Amino acid sequence: MLVLVLDELDHACARSEALVRDVFSLAQTAGSRLVAIGIANRLDLTDRLLLDLRACRAAPQLLPFNSYTAKQLLAVLRVRCPSQPPLELGLPRSASWALSKWRER
Questions:
Q1: What is the C-alpha separation between 71 and 33, in angstroms, rounded?
Q2: What angle do CA 12, 99, 49 make, to 5 degrees?
Q3: Where are the alpha helices (DSSP H) in the chain?
Q4: What is the value of pTM for the model shown?
Q5: Does the N-terminal or the C-terminal CB of the chain have fewer CB atoms within 10 Å?
Q6: Can you say how many angstroms the Cα of residue 5 is from the centroid of all Cα atoms in its chain?
C-alpha cells in the first residue's frame, strides 16, 4: 500500500486540477494500492473543482475539522510561548481582538 498525502490541495487544484483528479481517480481504480489523502482549506473543493470525480464515483470522502476558537488559539500561544508573560505583552486583549476581527471576515 502506498499512502500519498497532498497538502494544500486547493492550491494544487488551482495549478493542475487534472493532476489532482488523476491521483484520486487512480486511488479508486480496482486493484489500486494507492491511498490518496488530500488536505485543503476549502470544504467545497469537491463540489466546485472536482465535479467529474463525483461523476465517475471517485469523489473523496470528506472529513471536516472545525477551526480554532479565539480561546483555543490563546491557549496554544500560552503553551508554545511559556517564557513570554502574556499580560506583559498585552497578549490576551490584543490577540482576542485580532482573532475576533479575523473570525468576522
A1: 42
A2: 20
A3: 9-28, 45-48, 51-55, 70-80, 86-89, 91-104
A4: 0.58
A5: C
A6: 12
